[in-house]
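User: Structure with 4'-deoxy-4'-aminopyridoxal-5'-phosphate, tokens only please.
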Amino acid sequence: MSQFEDQQLLHRRQKVLGSSTPLFYDRPLQLLRGEGAWVFDADGRRYLDAYNNVPHVGHCHPHVVDAMCRQAREININTRYLHPLIVELGERLTATFDDPLDVVAFTCTGTEANELAIRIARTHTGNQGLIVSDWNYHGHSITLAGATTALPAPEAMARHARTFAVPDMSRGVSAQASLAQLEQAIASLKESGHGVAAMLVDTIFSSEGLPDVPAGWLNSAMEMVHKAGGLLIADEVQPGFGRTGEGMWGYRVHGLIPDIVTMGKPMGNGHPIAATVTTRALLESFGQQSLYFNTFGGNPVSAAVGLAVLDVIEQEGLIAHARVAGAYAIRRLNAIIGRHPVIKQMRGRGLFFGLEMVDPVTGEPASAEARRVVNRMRDEGVLLSRIGHDDNILKIRPPMAFGCEHADFLIERLDKVLGEAR
Ligand code: PMP
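Assistant:
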């Protein structure tokens, strides 16, 4: 496949999808096949996938693909008929949560899961206000776009939304300063008459750049929100399904139990299935005043896929694997970053890392250099991305099939690219 043919495809895409539909990389990449932690372009050239959390248990995992095909041959239908698989998935999924989180509603996307969580919180509390971090992404619906800060959005911040900074010492935000901002957000929502329905946070703070938040900080934040009459919604789209290596759910790292948990991307290994998990009391109080159903969310094929993903996580011991392979990668990354003063800090846990890049002379975020590194790593056959307020934190978040040999491959190339004269 020549560059010319890629250009032609790009042109056709822009013509039919519009030119503002985003693509990764300065030179967009056409990927046609995937297997485990590897993806292959139109010429059959392989790339190590160190970016995608959608193919959570590995690209095209045969157990998941077989389960999907088997069920697609039987029936796929609206979720308002009885079918054993949606019940089985609900039972298996809720069994991974702490009491009293024991009921689930299925959706197709993380956005929908967060929307439903907000509706449950609003119905239960009688309040409308939503508190989010000041560099968040939770979805593309109208409610969420009005509270999103990490993407350019023409929508003004919604009148019911307030933000606060999460602790991050490299941005000079202490736990105390963060809680003071939260206090202000709560006071402002009360004053405006919206009140506090919920605080919605990604429990690994991925858009924010994986800051290592102090132990006990999220507990204090949750207490303040509860005292104001609101609920805590934990968005597990990023840390969920074992990525942290410290259990299935990211909230466990903080030693608390949220009121509502949402999940998505990794749940279907590429198939669109997502969910909102909460307590029976909350879901029932919502159900008494409202009605929720989702034509596709948790349909028999999606449920078969969701079950197969849970099988693989269990059978292949992927949570322990994330811990072991993650610790190995951190050791090896630490061994090279001393050679590259542009790397200020490494963050993350399990199989999710961030390398913060700053100009060693000025101390300013090295956003352009991070962009160069991401594009050069693509040439070297490794897919990465960037996160953080200044897009200066290299984002390494591979499928969980990523092992020590893949870490070696990545780190050798990263060492080379970081060392290139600019
Ligand atoms: N929450 C978080 C933390 C996310 O990262 C994303 C997607 N990147 C979403 C919600 C939205 O999920 P979806 O694209 O499935 O709607």
